[in-house]
């Protein structure tokens, strides 16, 4: 069974420039050059056919996909673009600096025509991944050289996450609270904005103790009972790191012009009572979706259903994606383009961390 790693700190190579011009990342930028990028972050999802795979493959064969890692092989490693699995490698990592801070940037080559080489037009540096801190956009940064040129890079250095609930989470439904693992297609779930809505698709993934040890970023986030405010959640809530939680406050209103926003759980770790649940031995994640992105009640807290944006669509198996497209045919045309509308404003990582910090500084609950 394939596994998937999501890289949320990604831009397209075409968003970047070296010395003010477009750049071919077949080779590293020249010494003494200036690097910058513009625009917003995107994400890409890496599919590993081997469910024990832990590494983003490097470039040991010089711009050629290793035979065992090609489509159809047991070691297949790909990313989905336009509905097609394309070979992908993390070629090298280089460093830039603003004089005070340094930033690591991984160069991801994608085999856009699947001819098993990675040096055709647009393939080198199709994606760039920020490893660690994200540099500011529209800011000239000094190139410092290649910091790593390995045959493989641990996925754990940047993480792979799913948007889902842990088993045991109690979801409000038409028949009262029901454990998420006991939900089925067609079950009616209470939503914040649209009343009872039928589940249109549901999926799950079990993460073993071995997988958690290899990639700690797959550990769930625990939101302790009462942490959010207004006695929510009513019991400890375990969600995947990127699962968004509703924040409602005057601080959100001042910062974003709306009093209700959705923030990824791992971005709220500064708040007391929210922690990485490293004590779990294994975890099974569940995710479900409706005709539209909704806010549901889980262990008494308001959280999101699966958001059918391009990232989420690419981050599930081909079989599951085929099933989703049969239920939501409009998603096939939408994938990689206009995402599903969010139930609330969806904060990026920097925004959510700033929001959490403001609440902590002012001793205010995240839900008021």
TrEMBL record:
Residues 163-309 form the Hedgehog/Intein (Hint) domain. Keywords: Plasmid. It holds the Pfam family Hint_2. This is Hemolysin-type calcium-binding region. It comes from Tritonibacter mobilis F1926.
